[in-house]
Amino acid sequence: MKKITFLLVSFLVIVSCNIDDNGETPETPVNLVNENNTVQAQVSAVTFASIDTNTFAEIIDETNLRIAGGDGAAILEILIGGYTGVGLYELESGNPDSSLTATYTIPSTVGAPDRVWNIVSDPSSAGELMVTEASESSVSGTFSITLINELEESTLVFSSGTLTVEL
Predict the structure, then answer these.
(1) Structure pTM?
(2) Which H or E element spans position 123?
(3) Is the CA virtual torsion 86, 125, 26, 45 positive or negative?
(4) pLDDT of 49-80, one tens digit each?
(5) What are the extents of the domains in the chain?
(6) Which terminus of the chain faces fewer neighbouring Cβ atoms within 10 Å, N or C?
């Protein structure tokens, strides 16, 4: 719980100082990214790369793996249900038993709603995560996902995603 609280507090502090005047999400400075503890992907023409202090993974109830990474302007959270280690986990839109779910959130200013993209029962929500290495202390892999913001009727495609995250 302390890890989650710390992550959220540091995320909010960084977000308040890290959004461009035009509302676009800036790319993460390279010096804040630790290649041994990061979640990275191409999102349209921008590279999402989580900051070391805003990146973590945890095993929940022995069968679920939660991975979260924040870049100072947004946070990507991926949950693998039925996690068993190395293997392919697929996102199936509209399937509540899908082994992979994901949410991308851009916190808004006070009083405004957050901007949220997630898995919906729309065929355009899709993706997969391949865990290539798993140990008691870290997990690594690749992923690609498509998330939808129903309020804004917009789609985000995360491609060429890689993750190496400490447990």
Answers:
(1) 0.76
(2) none
(3) positive
(4) 999 899 999 999 988 999 999 999 999 999 99
(5) 2-166
(6) N
Q: Please give the structure tokens belonging to residue 115.
A: 């901007």
Q: How far, rounded to the nearest angstrom, does the alpha carbon of residue 134 sit from its chain's CA centroid?
A: 18
Element (H, E) at 110: none
Q: What are phi and psi of 125, to 5 degrees?
A: -80, 125
């804004």: which residue's tokens? 152
Cα torsion for 23, 25, 31, 32, to the nearest 10°?
100
Q: Residue 46 has which token pair? A: 């921008």
Cβ neighbours, 10 Å, residue 108: 13
How many Å apart are CA 114 and CA 49, to the nearest integer? 20
Q: What is the mean pLDDT of residues 149-162?
A: 92
Question: For the range 51-55, what are the long-range contacts, defined as Cβ-Cβ under 8 Å and sequence gap of 24 or more?
Answer: 51/14, 53/7, 53/10, 54/7, 54/10, 54/11, 54/14, 55/165, 55/166
- Report whether pLDDT(26) > 50: no
Element (H, E) at 24: none
Q: Let me know how many helices (H) and strands (E) the chain has, helices first.
A: 1, 11
